[in-house]
Structures are given as structure tokens and as C-alpha cells.
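Database export, one record per block. Field names are fixed; values are copied verbatim from the stored entry.
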Amino acid sequence: MSETTIVLAVSLGVELLAAFLALRLIRSTGQKAGWALIATAAALMAVRGILALAGGFSLEPDVETELMTLCVALFMAAGAAMIGPVFREAKRTQVALAESESRFRNLFENAQIGIYRTTPGGRILMANPALTKMLRYDSFEALAARNLETEGCGPSYAREEFKRLAEQPGGVCGLEAEWTCCDGSPIFVRESAIAVRDEDGDVSYYEGTVEDVSRRRELEQQLLHAQKMDALGRLAGGVAHDFNNLLTAILGYTTLLLDRIPEGDAMRPAAEEILAAGKRAAALTSQMLIFSRRQVVQARPLDMNMVVLGMEALLRRVIGENIEMAVVLDPKLGLVKADLSQLEQVVLNLAVNARDAMPGGGRLTIETRNEDLDEEAARALPDVEPGTYVLLSVTDTGHGMTTEIRSHLFEPFFTTKEPGKGTGLGLAAVYGIVRKGNGAITVETEPGKGASFRILLPRIQATPTQRMRAAREDPPGMGTETVLLVEDEHSVRSLARTVLEKHGYRVIAAAQGEEALDHVRRYQGTIHLLVTDVVMPGMGGHQLAEHMRELRPDARVLYISGYNDSTAAIEGVLQAGAAFLQKPFTPGRLARAVRSVLDDGAPGLRPAGS
């Protein structure tokens, strides 16, 4: 084999390799035309070599020419082999870049928070759909038409302030502010942003994220409001407790005074006014306890007609002479199970609210009737089941209310009255009492056409005895038993002693638990009843009763309280099934409660004096 043949054979192999490598680069680089031409050239050189080996040329190939051809083929193959990895790496980089860009685009388009890019001149370069939707724009183009440099973002801070914060090292993180939406409505946002600078250090654009925290801000405000209400409730409960002690003495001594002033005496109207004012003050403290949710509820069968009739004289004095009051009562009205003082509070608050709505005079109508609700009627009321109810309606001819005022009517501390003229607790208390009694309250009103409050309470099936008790309040009976009275408030203790002694009882009085136990140990006779305040300095009423049971196991117990912060003590007493009398109480209620506990044997669950 000659040297020329060997060179031709080697050249042929290299040329075929160069053609193959060139064809591979077509797929790696995507440049079909260029690499196809190079592959074709290598293939033609290979064909020429085949023909030369086969003797297809008229001229004999020489070694020099074939060596030159071999070098060209070598360079082509080497070049293709060396540049192939470069192009393949570039291809992988391009694919990775495309995937990264796709992921970023998906993140940008589908993110739940707003993403933006703006220029120092206020032009919006980029904003994702979340931000567009957050600001209530129909499209990015509509949002981009807004120039932030001239329009700003919202009332919380100026554009210049934002730029100053964003351009500081690290940018700004967690900036909370109020923004204005497309429709003018406000939203609260939490924003983080940073300034992106060019090679010269000048700001090219700002980019950042925005989160709508309006709901979180609303929840925070609700939490703060709840904490404030709880604090006010604790304050109201504490004030009510102390005030109830004072009112017990005021109401009690005024009642005793009225018993000694004959009808027609010039001093009797003054004493009656004191009693009426005391009852209104007692209603206010009851209202405060309802608001603070610390009132002890003593529910029993009640006749709504008797509640209204029992308050009629008081209501006429409260509303004034320029308002005509009409009472329309259903003689066949059913009974409801409720707390008497709370029902009185409902009637009084609605009457006072009606009076304030008629400063120039008008007509107040209080009506009762039975009401049967089918499924359709019950569906129109919030959280009310179909069934039988007792309706109490209070209607006035006052100035009425707008829809906006009516929507806030039962909120605590909401009032349309001038500062100092209303607490904003009255209707909130009414709403709380009605809802707690599984009832419903509705309001029909229009500006200039008065208002009608309709209260529905579940009607109960009552026994003849319950109906008789609901229809009248028995006069307090007399007694001869011995009562141990323990009360740390001097005025209340003195009043209770006077009332009980007036009704024939022998009274042993003490200011605290230890003193009471000393009396028990020294007294040789029978002690029939312990009347004790629940919360007292040192030994509480419940502890005193436990000691009393050890020393005098036959003695019965009546607890009294005007509420103290230690509600657990009162709740423990009630859960034990003990008799309980809420302050402020009148002399009659105290005497009836004492007689009830003494006559009924074991106290049971029924509230004393009911």
C-alpha cells in the first residue's frame, strides 16, 4: 500500500467524522443552514477521497495534495468537536433561562400579593394581576395610566417620603399605610420596597411587594375594641357593685319613709320622686351589669302585662306630660320565662328612647299580644325558631331613623344624642337581654315617621300556680324566727336589720364572717336562717355558710350580693342550688325572700323572692 493510499484512507475517515460532528451541531445550536453547508463540504471531500481510492480520477493523487486535504479535514473535525460542548452548554443555559423566566412569570402572575416596578418619575413599569385587582383596576393598562409622582398612593404618606425610605440601605420593609383604590375606597397595605440603581449609582427604578392587610387591621381593631369593652365591663361591674349598696339603702329607707307618710301629706310627692329616681338609678346599674355580662339572672314565669302595669306610673313620670301614653294589653297573654328586673329594664329603656325621639311631644303606645310564628315568618327573623311567642311592641311618633342609624342601633356606646345626653348602652342592653332569652327584636322606622320596636319572647306552658304567682306579688309575710344577718356595708346591714325586725324576726347582725361565727358560738337559741353577702373582706359568704353548717346544720341560707369582681364566688353559690337575692332590693323583696327560704325548706334552685 502506497503512502498516498494511506493518506487518502485516513483523510476519508476524518472527513466523514467532520461531517458527522457538523450534523450534530445542527441540533445543539439550531443553526441548520450553516452547519449543513459545513457537513456537505466534508461529505464532498469524502466522496472525492473515495473516488480517488477507486481510481475514478484521471490524474494520480499525489501525497502533498492529499496531506493538505487531510489537514483541512482534521481542522474541520477538531473545530466541530471543540465547539460542540460550547454550543450544547449555551443551549442548556438558554433552556434553563427560559424555564426560570417561565417560573418567574408564573410567580408574578399568580402571586397572592402585589408586585410592582416603578420609575423615580412615578411611571408604573410593571404590576402583577394581584396588585391590579387589589386596587380595583380592570387592567394593568388602566393602572399604568396612573402617575404616582402626581397622584401618590394614598393619604398615609407622600411619594417623596416613600422614595426616601426605599432609597436607604436595605430599602423599606413592612411599611403599613392606607392606599386609595380606583373607586376611591381605602385599603390598608403592608409594603416592602427597594431602589435598584445603575452603574453610576442613580436610581433606575423601585420594585417591591404589597400585601392587603385590611382584614387583619379590622381584626386587630375588633380585638382592641373587645379588650376595651372588657375593661369597661370590669369597671362598670365594680361601679355597679358599690352603687347597688348605696341604692339598696336609698330605696329601702325611702320605702320605709313612704310607709310612714300618709296619702295627701305635702312631703309624700317628694319622697315618691326620690323613690322613682332611685329606681331609675337601679335600672342604670342593672344596665351596666348587663353590658358587663356580670348580672345574675333569676328567670321565672312572668306575665308581661303585669310587668307593664307595674311600671305604668313610673313610665308616665319618665316620659313627661307632653307625651301621651297608651297601653294596649292582651287579656289572654301567655307567660314568658325571664328575669323581672331585666324585663323592666327593657320596657324602661325603650320608653326612654321613645321619649328622646319626641322632644316636642307625641304618642307612645305599648302593646302586648300572643304571636305564632310559622316557618316562613321565623325565617325572616335572625336565629328564631318557629313556635309560640309573646310580643311586646313599643311605638312612638318621633323623628324616626335613617337606614344607616338603624344598622348601628344596638351597638354599645352608639348614640345620636348630644355629648353628655346619652350613654349608648340602653338599646345594647335591650338587645343583649332579648337575645339571651332566645327572643328576637326588630325595628320598623323611617325618617319623620316614628319607630316601632317589636320584641318576641318564647311563650311557655305554665301551671295554674305559676300563673297565679306571675299575676300578683304576695305581700311579705311576718315571722318570729331568728336570722343571722352578715353584711359588711353598714347602710345595707342597718336597713336589712330594720326591715326584718319590723316583720317580727329576731336579728343577730355582724359586719364580717369571724364576728358572725363568734355570735353563733355564744348564742344558745336556734338560728333559723343565715342571710349573708357573698363577697366580704376576709371570710366570704360561701365559707361562712360552710362553717355555719358544721355549727348549726339545720340553719338555712340566703345569699345577697350587688356583684363584685369575684364572680366565681357568686357562680359557685348559684351552681350549688342556693337561694340568692340581687341588690339593690326593696324591703318587700327582702322580706319575701326570707319568708320564702324559711317556708320552702331546702332552698332549691328557685331564686329567692320570686
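Remark 1: The mean pLDDT is 79.
Remark 2: The CA atoms of residues 389 and 459 lie 5 Å apart.
End of record.
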